Amino acid sequence: MQVINQGLEKELFNYLVHSIENTPYYQLLGVKIRLLGPGLAELDAEVSQQHTNPLGAVHGGLYMSLADAAMGNAVRSLGIMAVTVDCTTSMISGASLGETIKARGTLEKVGKNLIFASARVITGEKLLATTKGTFYRVGLIDINHGS
Amino acid sequence: MQVINQGLEKELFNYLVHSIENTPYYQLLGVKIRLLGPGLAELDAEVSQQHTNPLGAVHGGLYMSLADAAMGNAVRSLGIMAVTVDCTTSMISGASLGETIKARGTLEKVGKNLIFASARVITGEKLLATTKGTFYRVGLIDINHGS
Amino acid sequence: MQVINQGLEKELFNYLVHSIENTPYYQLLGVKIRLLGPGLAELDAEVSQQHTNPLGAVHGGLYMSLADAAMGNAVRSLGIMAVTVDCTTSMISGASLGETIKARGTLEKVGKNLIFASARVITGEKLLATTKGTFYRVGLIDINHGS
Amino acid sequence: MQVINQGLEKELFNYLVHSIENTPYYQLLGVKIRLLGPGLAELDAEVSQQHTNPLGAVHGGLYMSLADAAMGNAVRSLGIMAVTVDCTTSMISGASLGETIKARGTLEKVGKNLIFASARVITGEKLLATTKGTFYRVGLIDINHGS
Q1: Residue-level pLDDT at D147
Q2: Could you report the per-residue pLDDT of D73-117, keeping only the tens digit for each?
Q3: Cα(C80)–Cα(C140) distance, rounded to whole angstroms?
Q4: ipTM of the complex
């Protein structure tokens, strides 16, 4: 599936897509990038048996990982390198195996050092989880030298 | 490595260990159970390249997943089936590849419907993350019929 | 200032306005109700010297109290009595003395037992704080017999 | 009641006690300092009718304000000026009117820019709330020139 570029400068967009598609933790969980824009990222994952917890339901860690990834890449879409400081998630509903869950990460405020983000995880019209995250800026992305 | 039983009735202990060792999401992430006691669970994971984020550091999702798992199994150690409602994590330090990170989940209060838990993620003496979680009770574990 | 009714049945609206205007903690902090709708509440407070912390800035407790109040009354606007379970706030910017800060509480999901809400605290166009809250339903509001 | 000094240098201790006792928001809520040590603060408040919410119970904002104050002063006990970034509270039980509620704030990690703290709010042996907070350092306390 093609990744949608909703307004990013092409070089940054290509850099981020390549970086995300080669991120080991995303590959491990089956997380894929779908859309990037300035201060905006959407990633999704198809829920399968490998994501289930001892109750046979999707483990909360998947929602949290996906939401964190969406927020983190919303930050990166501004060319900012940052680390997650605080991440809080409410688990509202569960997804079923075979469904695709999507997290949309957006930014509330981009401060000098701290960046405040949020994400919603959905499947279709159904809200699965809401997340709020705080990030700490550690530098700028250098497209030419990786990271 | 043998799992430590710190005071659980043997049948429940064996049931939980077997259940955890066969949980797909834990297998996917490499999460292993190390200790169970009443209201207490310790799980760990050896950090490897597959857990890394676009910066090459361990993805926050791993700390959150491990902490959620430790809290969830601390709840299950009382024979309670519950789902995570809220989970909030502070990322304090990062682990290095090759290190084993351990989450210890404990319970603050076991109410009729809501259970309040917390977890600390460490490697050696170093504190990596602190987590607070709220769980909603959905039933009791039936050792004889699974879940 | 008149309280705006954005779609509540008149009896419930009047009941809630009267109840809020007579709530001691709101009176103590100077918190006033401005708008009620189904699943929606706006309250505000004029920031004054009495709200300041040891640094002379507005104490975070005021933002948290106002946000909690906005979420709690968004829940009550549906005729539901509930208690706050989890409340998490990010402090994004500070208000200045003399400014009026407003919290708008909305609902993400109204479950059988758990209700998920969020609030934004602003002054003018400036975002001061974002809050996420989880509430536990304890009953229904009985307009004729108080609470 | 005398404030306990559990190991702070006398000048800083006196400065902080004086500062806290003259903090308007604490006076408004009836919050009093009881103990200070390095990375440690205990404050309390006698719960009265003025703290009640529309249900007649203690408003969650009081627990959150008290917990934030305990964490903030635990930070200040190290001579650090900081602002709250994130604050998340679980409301576990409620206090009754006439009871004294106490928050104990401690520090998990003091980083260069970020400080991670937690607090527990109790009355007697009963746990009322647990809080986790992240603070951002803005400078050092200058005992001779206020703040």
Answers
A1: 47
A2: 999 999 999 999 999 999 999 999 999 999 999 999 999 999 999
A3: 5
A4: 0.95
Backbone angles phi, psi at C39, to 5 degrees: 75, 30
Question: What's the whole-number mean pLDDT along residues A47-56?
Answer: 93
SS3 annotation, chain B = CCCEECCCCHHHHHHHHHHHHCCHHHHHHCEEEEEEECCEEEEEEECCHHHECCCCCECHHHHHHHHHHHHHHHHHCCCEEEEEEEEEEEECCCCCCCCEEEEEEEEEEECCCEEEEEEEEEECCEEEEEEEEEEEEEEECECCCEC
- Which residues of C fall below an 8 Å CB-CB distance to D? 19-20, 23-25, 27-29, 49-57, 59-62, 64-66, 68-69, 72-73, 76, 81, 83-91, 94, 147
pLDDT of residue B1: 75
pLDDT tens-digit profile of A1-12? 799 999 999 999
CB atoms within 10 A of CB A96: 11
For chain C, 147 residues long, the average pLDDT of each consecutive 10-residue run is: 95 97 97 98 98 92 98 98 97 97 98 98 98 97 74
Structure tokens at C18: 């009267």
Q: Which of D24, D62, D91 sits opposite C50 (nearest CB)?
A: D24
> Mean pLDDT throughout B70-85?
98
What are the structural domains, with CATH classification, of chain D? 4-140 (3.10.129.10)
Contact D90 B127 (CB under 8 A): no
Mean pLDDT confidence for A9-17: 97
State the pTM of this model.
0.96
Quick one: three-class SS letters along chain D?
A: CCCEECCCCHHHHHHHHHHHHCCHHHHHHCEEEEEEECCEEEEEEECCHHHECCCCCECHHHHHHHHHHHHHHHHHCCCEEEEEEEEEEEECCCCCCCCEEEEEEEEEEECCCEEEEEEEEEECCEEEEEEEEEEEEEEECECCCEC
Q: Taking CB atoms and an 8 Å limit, are B134 and C134 in contact across chains?
A: yes
C118–A108 C-beta distance less than 8 A? no
Residues in chain C: 147
Distances (CA, A) of B118 to B1, B129, C87: 25, 11, 15
Chains that touch A (3 or more CB pairs under 8 A): B, C, D
Mean predicted confidence (pLDDT) in D27-41: 98
